[in-house]
């Protein structure tokens, strides 16, 4: 066995073409300048060992004869280090975003990262979610296929653990279930056939919490898991139009003893709870459309109050523009202190837009002074909300100006193809749903919708976010054919991966 040395640190394309790779993460600039996808880097700690016995034996024969030896190799070489490299890349990317970034919403997984005694079903769950995220980020079929294999194995191992009541009560079982749900959301194709499996993980997680008991979720990690589950369940129910399970109210009451109940996010979630909880009972108890209109108006006012009282918790900095830019709609844009703050503001705005849409949809055909006032208030609110959503975009998309600080140190904003960090990629991804709802809304002006479509195309082309081009195409079709049926906002939300990328 001959030691062949450590593998090159260069990416696959640079190795094959013997190019000088700048080793920038997540993608090298050589690939970006060429306009091709960079598939990242190998694990340089692994060693390449190759069986050279036959080659060594044949060398003395070269001195005795004129014929060259033939070294036979198997037709199907099992390059075992390649899947390992893929998994290492995936895990590094997963840790960078979901545990170290992403408002640290998944940092309750930290204890598993440096442990040699990690439960098998959790390890497989992390592997599956990591590979799904890598596949989504670089459009890698290999990562997606390997992720599905890991997912199936994780599902089988988790089901085996659930057969034992004591093992099912372990916190690791809930962690594995949350990871399985995350995998489903990341690789979600938007098809209705997958909804059953996605709901199954949510319902399974709630059952595990009930089995374990809320009194066993009092430490920081336990509280974060419950809050993650609360958000996931609520969004699933809203997006599918189903009532929130009663268990969720008990969990929220439990969380109120360990969290800041004055936090804008916590308060917003509480208001959104009220938009979904009645379920079928709501339609039966509100035969008069005015009751529903007044209910929506009340919820909208509550969300507006939260937004007015949010600062400085959710910091927003207004920037006046003194130059012309295709990345800015009006003469200003907003700058937020983080991606999470941007996302929470836009989530609040989207919620208000949907409530205002429902108000206008519910207004009686016969106009009255009361209905005119309700329509005027809803329309005015929608106009302001759409402007605010559009103003949140340049800080993420304008690499030459507003978003220049987000570029890697060696990136040149003047060059069409320059590098972007994973964080910057996701900064743009979280804008997609808010931009769709703004462009979908009946309150969106023609020039605003045209600008929104243009920004979505830019995000798709410049940042290579394939879903942005998909959303842009949907809005373009709606614009061309006003009579066609518009996809529901929550259908687009599921298409974009639901809460898999939400802070």
From TrEMBL:
Pfam families documented for this protein: Zn_clus
Domain Zn(2)-C6 fungal-type, chain residue ranges per copy: 10-38
PROSITE patterns per record: ZN2_CY6_FUNGAL_1, ZN2_CY6_FUNGAL_2
GO MF assignments: DNA-binding transcription factor activity, RNA polymerase II-specific; zinc ion binding
Swiss-Prot/TrEMBL keywords: Nucleus
SUPFAM superfamilies: Zn2/Cys6 DNA-binding domain
Signal peptide: none
Identification of the protein by name: Zn(2)-C6 fungal-type domain-containing protein
